[in-house]
């Protein structure tokens, strides 16, 4: 739902930067011989030459469009160069494009607050930079203005016949009688042109930009003159810009709301909205949406540029159109495994590089039910707490899928009827990880201690009683939608495939144990490039609209009594022994390598987890670390008065050496420590209250020390 944000009276300078034919530029940088040639990037499958996902401006001149397939593109432009998108795990691998986007951001972020809006789009708040420039080097005082700035398009600036457009722009930029807003805007135009030139110099990519006093207008403007150009929106031109702007092209009006405006109110352009009072719009669409609509008609939007260089969520998805629809659980599982593997890799890169951790796993799917035209797209999205580790993510995603499927079948007034029920088909699958936050700094050293093994990798915080309804109301079957879910320890991963297949066969009796069904057929499979740096950049291939992963808050939590009982039993067993303690116990013996422990646990799993049910032993060695929600840890003075006093221990045998600093311990994890350590750490963390209560370097060092 759109959110109405009032605009402040302060002048702001916001720019929206959008890369030009981005994937093509990335490929052309890789293969320089393609530069200047009509080029398109296609999906990996070869059906009719593959679907075009990015088209160079040279190719666009020939009439090549993104909606075409490779063969069609060749018909209109025989010399077109078609480059296949890189492939990994049977689907598009977008890492090269993501990394290229990051390169651009690292340049742009130097000048102001920067928000990564998608793989190739960025918002920047340049207000401070523009104000500084106005004070120190106002355009009217500049001797020379760069050509790139003079090439700007200034909306509302009419180029009378015979006059030099660049000269007109120069005059506009240097007006001494301009109002403060326009003066700032002129500075913004100069700064953005410099930034774009810098991006080109450092990355070899061209981009286009819109410069205005809010995000909405900046975004509209960036698309107006492409490629490699910039458009400035003075306040006096806002009405002119919006007057004829198609309502459905406005952000958040591409769907039902936009359609309702068209059909119910006859609003086809943003300007048409001006006819309606705020009150009328509020009565029709609610207070918030009504005000938002009233605002956008006037170009009002107070939305801030969020300082965010990193994606808000990660996603991986794939479409299975037409005959490629997935019709067995095994084939769904196969593809979920691929998607989850990719997601897991990205989560771990994010953790390694940015020290961030995601909290929520969500499964999205589209499905159809034979003979029920209403069934399409009703597949409910499901969420659960995210557990790190590829196998765990795969397992949880499958559980979420099954929960969704039960509900979906419920929607369609039918039941899953075992082996041969092929009346449903899955046409797209996606997994996403959201609620990503920095790991509290106090846990870093502990993470290091585990030799890169994230504590949560061995977490037993299973989603089986935490399946969360994402997008649809609870169905009657909801409360049992996950009954029979498998659960495993990370240490049990070696035996899980067998067990999982047994479980699946027992539950659904599906064929296709190889899970390769989507490979059969005529190569129709299309990729969804569900990029999710922001959650709003999930891109589908042609024929599919861009898909957005819902970022809504989960609405309901399904409880599953039977599984809850199992968990309760295990919780009871574990009562009194806190999770970090258990984690330490698993690791503190240096004579046992991780591999040995895994092997031993796998052995145990073989004997304890056969079939569709898992014994409580499966949980009995659960290690659970709840990472605190806080995103930072305050510096804590230690008892010896130094700001960074530390205590260290070394692990000589079989593991990398490790150390910890007292001031790196997050107070919120102290409860996880064994009681004797808690006491000691608390004493250190509150030196002023309880000085010298505990002798430094005694029990905690002893405890952490691997030779203990
Ligand atoms: P866009 O910014 O929409 O387009 P573009 O950069 O190719 O071209 P333009 O100059 O007109 O902005 O998308 C950015 C990249 O995202 C694009 O290069 C390829 C990818 N993409 C898809 O994979 N599928 C899609 O449906 C769309 C729209 C884009």
Plain-language structure description:
It contains 23 helices and 21 strands. Helix 4 (95-108) packs across helix 8. It has a six-stranded mixed beta sheet. Strands 12-15-13-14-16-19 form a six-stranded antiparallel beta sheet, covered by helices on one side. A three-stranded mixed beta sheet has the order 3-2-4. A hairpin with a 2-residue loop joins strand 7 (113-118) and strand 8. It is globular. It has 708 residues and is of the alpha+beta class. The structure holds thymidine-5'-triphosphate. Residues 18-23, 53-54, 119-120, 226-227, 529, 539-541, 546 line the site of thymidine-5'-triphosphate (TTP). Residues 14-254 form the UmuC domain. Belongs to the DNA polymerase type-Y family. Residues 508-562, 632-654 are annotated as: Disordered. It is an enzyme of class 2 (transferase).
Please summarize what this structure is:
This protein is α+β, with helices and mostly antiparallel strands.
Highest-level CATH class of the largest domain: Alpha Beta
Q: Nearest-angstrom radius of gyration?
A: 29 Å
Give the overall average pLDDT. 70
CATH architecture of the largest domain: 2-Layer Sandwich
The unique ligands bound to this protein are:
thymidine-5'-triphosphate
Please report the total strand number as a whole number.
21
Give me the secondary-structure category.
Answer: alpha+beta
Low-confidence runs of at least 5 consecutive residues: 414-420, 448-465, 470-678, 684-708
Number of helices: 23
Largest sheet: 6 strands, mixed
What is the number of domains?
4
Distance between the termini: 56 Å
| Broad shape | globular
CATH superfamily of the largest domain: DNA polymerase, Y-family, little finger domain
Share of helix among residues? 25-40%
